[in-house]
Amino acid sequence: TDPSGEFGVxxxxxxxxxxxxxxxxVSLIFPVFNDANVLLSALRSLKNTxxxxxxxxxxxxxxxxxxxxxxxxxxxxLYDKVVYLKHSGNSTVSVNxxxxxxxxxxxxxxxxDVLFEQxxxxxxxxxxxxxxxxxxxxxxxxxLNKTVNHSMRRWMPEGNQSNSHYERxxxxxxxxxxxxxxPIVAGCGMTTTRKLWxxxxxxxxxxxxxxxxxxxxxxxxxxxxxxVCQSDAWFYHFGSTAYGGMGTxxxxxxxxxxxxxxxxxxxxxxxKKNNELxxxxxxx
Length: 284
What we know:
single chain; 284 residues; alpha/beta; two-stranded antiparallel ribbon; disordered N terminus
């Protein structure tokens, strides 16, 4: 089926090549638009660092202009399914389409411009759900110099995405550890339960790029679940490479304004409490 109602979907499965015979624990959804070498590096590194939990990899190709079908044909052991969309230019549409054909108990939103190095990072994220009423779990993403790129996020009324991160620029060794409650987590690596995904009806598709993660996290809180960051799990994220770098400043700014309008009453309360995390679950 086409979850967006607008974009044609074609799907190919590779299950006979791969290790997942029963239902996997995690479905990793990778929106793809060109950049074959970046994607292949991500998938190879994933295979080498995620043996502690069963998972499936679903690629959602948003009508790449490069001949990606040849790449998919030659790399079948690195993924389980590929979905071909008519071009939407919207990563949330791609994720929704990927989830439609997924089977995992948990769903993770990934980017193609990532690199995995830490053994057991995915298992750490899954274990974070053991605490009651956890609905969405994020993790750390790093730059290549091992400083924090994305982590826990707060709402900055007069700020932007860059200064909304608690630990951006800090060395990994000096940043927080353990599972920490927070208002928002970054979209890359953001994981949720299939139960909550079905309850909320997937991503809102009117967020082409930027702040779709904030919208999802606010919806998680509204549904009565917690958002946490598993600060012991990390991988590298290069940023602005996935999806052909379509997340323009104008688009990000427009989406921030949508968030401000949609959640203005919550944001007012949050600003008064200065983003005190232990108060956040009382705001909804």
